[in-house]
Amino acid sequence: MTQLKIAERQIAMILSGLIVLVGLVMAAAGHGDPMGAHGWIVMLFAGVVFCIVMNVLEDPEPSEDRRTSYYDDPTKVGIVIALFWAVVGMGMGVWVASQLAWPDLRFDAAWSSFGRIRPVHTSGVIFGFGGNALIATSFHVMQRTSRARLAGQVSPWFVLLGFNLFCIVAASGYLMGVTQSKEYAEPEWYADIWLVIVWIVYFVLYIRTLARRNEPHIYVANWYYLAFILVMAILHIVNNLAIPASLTGAKSYSAFSGVQDAMIQWWYGHNAVAFFLTAGFLGMLYYFLPKRAERPIYSYRLSILSFWGIVFFYIWVGSHHLHYTALPQWVQTLGMTFSVMLLIPSWASAGNALMTLNGAWHKVRDDATLRFMMVAAVFYGLSTFEGSFMAVRAVNSLSHYTDWTVGHVHSGAMGWVAMITFGSIYALVPVLWRKKTMYSWKLVEWHFWLALSGTVIYVFAMWNSGITQGLMWRTYTESGTLAYSFTDTLVAMHPYYIARAFGGALFLAGAVLAAFNVIMTIRKVPDQASQRDYPTNSEAAEPAVPAGE
Amino acid sequence: MNSLILLIPISLAMGAIGVVVFLWTLRSDQYEDLSGDAERILYAEDRPIVPKDQNTARKHKETAR
Fold it and tell me: How far is B21 from chain A (nearest CA, A)?
């Protein structure tokens, strides 16, 4: 706030005041409907922002020339919010997983049923944790690689807080039963419209910052972030085309139906995996991995080639989610073919990351932060191979609708997305807050092993469960009837569900340690003015192994 | 297949945007010094470059071309 001019604070106050009014209209019009409850939530959220801005409205103007420093406040807030969502989202995940093993954990409430809290888990980790981490790191990376300050002072706050308002409306809506039943796109029409506005501001902010860059070259990480922003906007708009049943209620009807709707949904769904969970986080990888390892990317040329490969291949693969359905065979085959082709740019990125570390293995051994990034690259390679493989129709006939899919998603989400994010956060926090080191390197080490063992236990449990399930479903007796009933498969899967909940709990424990460590770093570690983004000597950042151990 | 009538043109249009942007990167000399581009992020100071005077900065650019 201290870096905002008074005129900018006024704009912020007017904006939040307008959103309070929008909330008021929603609360009044949607009275008696979940939309009314959302109106109150919007009013509360915007009201708090309004009060915060009003409190500092008359504070003195920033004295220094703002162009001489980067604008890091939104990044800092974004990182803390991301960690908050990590704990919430992963906590919900552990609960959901436990419900599958022990159904009594629903406690007989409507809001706590599997169908309602599962989307809180998925949206909480993907959008809450991943989305905030992407927004925060993109603000950091775009400024550093452009050698220019953010092109707006109020708009970064609008993007960050607006996105979180969307996340809160989404999560609270699921608990009230508000959903349009599209995976990863559950929020209803008014939340979707709000996200479009936020996203356009985000895109404009990114382009304007790049346009004022003082470095002629646009670093490759920016391309990944840009693709993430632009493509997500298009996917979101197309998939959420819907007609509200009434303007005073949350319910809407999709513009498509049947297999048409399924095709649109999985065109969205798989490209959300591609451009949200892959491209965005590759942007993180391509900036923070070289920074932390203090080595340039092994082949910068290859990183650019794999970017364009991903851009041109990924958009066609969505139909591999609809093998053996009413979708025409050629469309399924198209999706399958492009899925297999995708292995090339995917492995190019994974290999590029690992080759960057080749020659710096001693750093990987000593520095858990770098190890997070290395393991992320390994899991990225593994899960993209698995994904291409599962998209093949014959494999899909075994894997589809089983827990194998869940295992695949989590090897990507935990092993790749969360690992690269935690690695980047540990690399970024000391730089952002100008601290010498993280509060506790031992906790980082603990987090690493908890996260890795949690992921491995989870993924192995789901592979076993999924393949068992798939094989049981396709086993026939001699007389040609199904050998196993649905209940038989549930009994067979029960031990794996317990293992899955346990693996998830380990992963959650790691995330809690991360949140604690980051907060203690901010509060307890003495400040340090550093000239560079990162100390030139990695030992200076974190004592690798203390003497005597 | 009405969803395909929508999705295929959109996907092709997105690909076309990609091609146009890629051609722009070629024309604006984005790939002239790849090893330097990869290394500069490692050694940059942690503060923006401030053009001393907007006009001289612009002149500088023009003469450089």
Answer: 10
